[in-house]
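Action item from last week, closing it out:
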Amino acid sequence: MPKIYGFGNALIDIEISVSEDELASLPINKGSMEHISSSQKMDWLQRFQTRVQSREPGGSIANSLHAAASQGSRCTFSCSMGEDLEKDLFLQGFNKKLIQTSFQYSINPTGICFIFVTPDGERTMASNLSANEDLNPKCLNKEILSQSDWLLFDAFSVCTSNGLETAKEALLIAKKNKVKIAFGLADINLIKSNLKEIEWVLNQSIDLLFSNEYEMNLMQQNIKTKVDILCSSGANGCSFNQVKVDAKEISVINTNGAGDALVGIFLSHYNSIPQQEALKKAVDYATAVCQIGGPRL
């Protein structure tokens, strides 16, 4: 199994079930992700305190590594966290035998992400990054990264100045040591507000670009170099370049984490089995994630 090195946001997902009308009353577009202030975080923690369904470790790249480790891949995750109970909860969410963490403490609290789930199972996210804004190149374990098979990160990690500097340093190490690079577009709203940074990453000769079909359609004209593309179509399955796999029909409980899992499973089988088989394993795993009330199996 490949060794995968990822960096990104360390978050505690707070899942809250809401009606369509309740979601419409919040300043978030359904199915998207917004960054919120600490004061907004405190307001919503109080407002929805009796509606919390779960508090679980999250963060897109962390979720992907969790899925990859389930297939036997050895993974490393770099991040920034506060010295608090949320940090402990986050670390407990990893398989310590297969996932190593390389992090620094921040004076700010560990980040959280509200996951508002409507009756159709669609998730809408609002993140308070907090300690994640202190992610910086010192969080990287350069030795482990240089010996990895893949570097994995996404647009969530380049939307802060510190995160962008971390990406630049990680890319230098990866290219010097011939580590393959996988990058995700992450969220359609994020693309619009961080287009310059994302375009910069896309021009760095990455090996794999992953996204959903809406994000890919938005960015298609910005992809100037040859790159393998892993594109999710939600309930309609997923494609890897010209290979397509359909998803099983299911009753969706919660889509949170499904796309993250798909990436982790696919990377863990990349080049070790035929592409169609790897893609099917990834789609089946992501489908199973949609049938539970959290981002990880």
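Closing note: The longest helix spans residues 161-176.
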